[in-house]
TrEMBL record:
Keywords: Glycosyltransferase, Transferase. Residues 336-366 have a biased composition (Polar residues). Residues 334-366 are annotated as: Disordered. It holds the Pfam family UDPGT. Gene3D superfamilies: Glycogen Phosphorylase B. PROSITE patterns: UDPGT. This is Glycosyltransferase. Its EC number is 2.4.1.-.
């Protein structure tokens, strides 16, 4: 047993704030856990030979971890991954992800075998599980774990995919509406399927299959979810019918709330002045840029809802989704590829210097890429164009709902704050997330918008209606949803209690599961 040794853990995160935030938090929680003797953590990050530099938000986050004298965290940037000989913009995002899933594990395996003081355990991102066979091949005898920055249903799908691959002919979505079945789990509508399974002829699908096949080499899998959010899925996973690998819920692994530091941002002062649960928060993730059309419908929807709002908005792209979150996450507004300048921050703060409201007028800035409707609604809320203090916003008592793209970190944050969700899923596993969140027999804390498959847009009437439903104290459907999310908030709080918390305890299993040693 390792119990008497001090452990050194090496972690490998996928690129993007949606992975780096929970990975850094996991490292901190391992180092401060009273039942685990891990004394050192080395977090490996991935970069590219591409024009997309890492964001200021990401640099700040990593730097603050290095600066924290109370924790022994090292950050190592792996050598950049070579994407192509041509302009990176010619390579689709799917291809970039596929290359990352293949190349990053190699770089990581090499890096850890060259380390002077070798790690005594490794934790890689679920999507980079191809590292496991490589580490094994290098004869490094360390326990190997995976951390999943999304839910257990996705993990069940991952273990079941090699079987589906053998059994299903043609594309998974070419069999009408007949659902995809994973033993013991919620049935999945083909249109909600994980995006990596969308095109079976694509390299991304082949890498995904290799990733799935490598999952069985893990000594244990830790998922950023709550037992109470997915009881049925955990029962199925424990039954042994899907896998024998032990899988534990350790969520919510989210950032600590930092009310003091983030008071730099006036949005919290503005929220202080609003009524309880009267403001809707809107964010479609750290990297996704809404199209002109999406911004227009969102603005009209907010107007029709009559509610006050806080909107975290990346500068718009010319076509929906060309700023896919996995790589551009958290990039600064100024670096937007379209070359548009972002709105001046001072125009967007709640009370500008002359004491006026936060209205943004067209004449105040040069670009004309935002729709008129966007300017019309400014008096009723706040738009944040740089990195928003999302967790501090969600935890503010004035917030009553969250229009979200259903990135899993956002969901864990919303659950932790007891905020009901309006789902506007876009990519990756977000459609799966939305479908379990809206299902009363599963989670039941959300209303799902009808998102166009091609444009990823939603009609404003629907947005307005959904916001009213979730905020209106008299609405019965809204009442049930609000009540349920508050119950889950309670479970989320308990999960990390140092006495009997289920997630706190589950993470300590990392010491008992040293199968490979
Ligand atoms: N986030 C933030 N400020 C922003 C945008 C995002 O703090 O302006 C954080 C958010 O709280 C969450 C993460 O970035 O922790 C985004 O992760 P998620 O899985 O929700 O979506 P992704 O950005 O990966 O699509």
């Amino acid at each position: 047993s390792h119990n008497h040794h001090d452990h050194h853990v090496a972690l490998l995160s996928s690129p993007g704030m949606g992975h780096i935030i929970p990975f850094l938090q996991l490292a901190k929680r391992l180092l401060t856990h009273q039942k685990i003797n891990i004394t050192k953590a080395t977090l490996f990050t991935i970069s590219f030979n591409s024009s997309s530099s890492s964001s200021k938000a990401q640099k700040d986050l990593l730097q603050s971890a290095i600066d924290d004298q109370s924790l022994s965290i090292d950050i190592i940037h792996l050598p950049p991954i070579h994407i192509s000989n041509h302009n990176d913009d010619d390579v689709t995002i799917e291809t970039k992800i596929a290359i990352t899933m293949h190349e990053a594990p190699k770089l990581f395996a090499t890096a850890i075998s060259n380390m002077e003081s070798k790690p005594t355990m490794i934790i890689t991102d679920y999507f980079l599980s191809q590292a496991l066979p490589l580490v094994k091949k290098n004869k490094m005898k360390v326990p190997m774990y995976l951390f999943v920055p999304t839910n257990a249903w996705v993990v069940a799908l991952g273990f079941h995919t090699p079987k589906l691959d053998k059994e299903v002919e043609g594309e998974y979505h070419s069999h009408g509406d007949s659902p995809i079945q994973i033993p013991g789990c919620k049935a999945m509508h083909p249109s909600d399927l994980f995006q990596m399974m969308e095109d079976r002829t694509h390299r991304l699908y082949r890498e995904y299959l290799l990733m799935c096949e490598a999952l069985s080499l893990a000594d244990g899998i830790f998922v950023n979810t709550l037992e109470e959010l997915e009881p049925k899925t955990f029962e199925a996973l424990r039954s042994g019918k899907i896998t024998k690998v032990p899988i534990y819920p350790i969520g919510p692994v989210i950032r600590e709330i930092n009310n003091k530091q983030n008071r730099i941002n006036d949005v919290l002062d503005w929220l202080d002045k609003q009524e309880e649960e009267s403001v809707i928060y809107v964010s479609l993730g750290s990297g996704y840029s809404m199209s002109y059309e999406q911004i227009k419908e969102m603005a009209l929807g907010l107007e029709q809802s009559g509610q006050k709002f806080v909107w975290s908005l990346r500068p718009p792209s010319t076509k929906a989704g060309n700023n896919y979150h996995y790589f551009t996450a958290g990039e600064d507004a100024e670096t937007n590829k379209n070359g548009h300048s972002s709105l001046q921050e001072e125009n967007l703060t709640p009370e500008s210097k002359n004491g006026e409201t936060n209205s943004v007028t067209k004449s105040q800035q040069s670009s004309d890429y935002l729709p008129e409707e966007f300017y019309r609604i400014q008096r009723n809320g706040i738009v944040l164009m740089d990195w928003a203090p999302q967790l501090e916003i969600l935890s503010h008592p004035s917030i009553g709902g969250f229009v979200s793209h259903c990135g899993w970190n956002s969901i864990m944050e919303s659950v932790s704050c007891g905020v009901p969700i309006i789902c506007w899923p876009l990519f990756a596993e977000q459609m799966m997330n939305a479908s379990m969140l809206e299902d009363e027999e599963e989670v039941g804390i959300a209303i799902r918008l009808n998102v166009s498959m091609s444009t990823k847009n939603v009609a404003s009437e629907e947005i307005g209606k959904a916001i009213r439903k979730i905020m209106d104290k008299g609405d019965t459907e809204g009442f049930v949803i609000r009540k349920r999310v508050k119950e889950l908030k309670h479970f989320a709080e308990k999960a990390w209690s140092h006495d009997h918390g289920s997630s706190y305890f589950a993470l300590s299993r990392i010491i008992d599961l040293n199968g490979a040693s």
